[in-house]
């Protein structure tokens, strides 16, 4: 299994409004990067919709550096089952990452996704989390 079989899942601070603030804790957004030959694939869901795009090494390293500085980075295991897009009842950055990684569970917040990935054996690539407000 090579690096192209794995995803870097980033958890970063974000300004969330309204109901999106509930249960998010320190990190308000997540996205995934994967090295795919000559480029990196950036997969992210935000208010503009689902984005999957090729980025060069410079952009990918910039995102990784930013995440290591102010967020938390995990190296997820390869998807446990073939990808099959089943839209969740509400599409968020978290539910999009669950679909991408083959996780079928009721996971709605970055905190829950982080815990699920750790439970599934994801490797922690950044330092320990600082739990400043009692929740992730």
How would you describe this structure to a colleague?
- A six-stranded antiparallel sheet has the order 4-3-2-1-5-6, with helices on both faces.
- The relative contact order is 0.23.
- The chain starts with 6 loop residues before the first strand and ends in a 12-residue tail after the last strand.
- It has one domain (3-124).
- The radius of gyration is 14 Å and the shape is globular.
- The chain is an alpha+beta fold and 136 residues long.
- 24% of the residues lie in helices and 26% in strands.
- The chain has helices at residues 57-70, 93-101, 110-119; strands spanning 7-12, 29-36, 39-46, 49-55, 72-76, 123-124.
Q: Radius of gyration, rounded? A: 14 Å
Helix residue percentage:
10-25%
Shape, please?
Answer: globular
Specify the structural class. Answer: alpha+beta
What is the distance, rounded to the nearest whole angstrom, between the alpha carbons of the first and last residues? 31 Å
What is the domain total for the residues?
Answer: 1
Percentage beta strand: 25-35%
Write a brief caption for the model:
Helix content is 24%, strand content 26%. With 136 residues, the chain is an alpha+beta fold. The longest helix is centred in the middle third of the chain and has 14 residues, at 57-70.
Characteristics of this structure?
136 residues, alpha+beta, six-stranded antiparallel sheet, 3 helices, globular, disordered C terminus
């Amino acid at each position: 299994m090579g690096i192209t079989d794995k995803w870097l899942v980033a958890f970063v601070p974000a300004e969330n409004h309204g109901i999106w603030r509930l249960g998010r804790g320190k990190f308000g957004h997540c996205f995934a990067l994967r090295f795919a030959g000559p480029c990196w694939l950036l997969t992210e869901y935000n208010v503009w919709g689902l984005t999957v795009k090729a980025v060069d090494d410079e952009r990918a390293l910039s995102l990784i550096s930013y995440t290591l500085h102010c967020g938390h980075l995990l190296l997820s295991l390869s998807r446990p089952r073939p990808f099959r897009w089943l839209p969740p009842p509400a599409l968020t950055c978290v539910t999009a990452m669950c679909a991408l990684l083959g996780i079928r569970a009721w996971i709605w917040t970055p905190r829950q996704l982080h815990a699920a990935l750790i439970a599934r054996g994801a490797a922690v690539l950044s330092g320990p989390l600082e739990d400043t407000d009692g929740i992730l």
